[in-house]
Amino acid sequence: MRPQSPNSYQQALVAKAREIAQARLAARADHHDREMVFPKESLQDLSEAGLTASLVDKAFGGLGLGHHRGDILTHWLIVKEIAKADMALARCFEGHANAMLLIDCIADDAQKARWFEGVVNHGHNWAVWSGEPQVVKPGQKQRFGTYVKETTDGYYVDGSKVFCSSAPGADWAILMVSTKGPGGARHATSAQDLIMLACDLRDPSVTVDDSWWDPMGMKGSVSYLVRFEETFIPKENLIGTPGQYLHEDWQTRFTPQYTATFLGGAEAAYEYALAYIQKQQSQQDPYVQHRIGKMAIHLETCRMWLARTAHLWETGEIQEAKLAGNSTRYLVEQLTMEVVNHAIHICGARSLIRPSALERIYRDLSFYVRHDNDDQVLAMVGKANLGVAHDASFFHAGKEDRSARGRASL
Description:
Layout: H1 8-35, H2 40-48, H3 73-85, H4 87-106, H5 109-122, E1 126-129, E2 145-150, E3 154-164, E4 172-178, E5 194-200, E6 206-209, E7 224-234, E8 238-239, H6 244-247, H7 251-280, H8 286-314, H9 318-347, H10 357-368, H11 374-386
Parallel strand pairs: 1-4
Antiparallel strand pairs: 2-3, 3-7, 4-5, 5-8, 6-7
Helix pairs in contact: 1-3, 3-4, 3-7, 4-7, 7-8, 7-9, 7-10, 8-9, 9-10, 9-11
């Protein structure tokens, strides 16, 4: 079955995102990058337009998009338009959207009413934080990780997380922590021990350390180190059941969303190259023609794969959607990196001198695609096609298929 064309309502939502992105968000991108600051004003613009509630149930004032509601492509296209203006901002938007999807699908009604009201009426920003890498890199002075102590009333969280996108500007975060010790979701030793806790970041026991975050790209995502000093989280803030995130492969729903950001950055690079060619009047250069042809084909291929993956989710073909999403993740990384490299070849060294937008896109995309190891992603796709046990969420080599313990129903 072929994906249906977007209806007028869907087209209007994407058009609204495009208009805001080009009219307001793009102008702030260089500032966010240079100063490494949280994109507060840009997220406010998206909130006032109702876009930060894209994955919130309509019953709670949201747009009602989502994998389980028959329309995730519109949301991914919104992400793409934001990324065309500012990939780091898109990362903050992604993290917020991931939290909204988890709450919409897993939280109880009281939790939804409480937290969605803050998003819809007060512009609250959310994030999802898991990062607790256990391998110590050269020069690292301390290990990252959290420890959880359960009481009759709730949980005490102590320790640190890294790659905490939106850290200085988020109001709430869903913490993925293990009751057995450090690891988060990506490095958990046991699926059953992973829990999700909604943490009010106004708690004075939560502090951020911006000295850890000095990357080559995605600077404006402000993905700082965050410390928790015996932070208390009440039982009423426990989302879902232990192990649910890994048992149901929730990460596979988010993987294609990252590719929407890659695609947005690559589309911006393509448009930059077209503008350069127009200025230089180099349309008749055969090498320029070859590179533009490749770029156009690559971008259209990415759009088709993203639409196909969305269609599988929207029509309930869950296992096929998981594999398609991971295949899309691998393919889009390869093609979008090629697109940006073609743009640099066309535009030359000057395009890599600030304040060139292409220079920022190159750094952001080069950094963000490392979110997952593409070698392991491709190996997972191979395993799936060979019928070999695999980790569809985090692509760990040699790990058991954690999803075999439970299958998603959404």
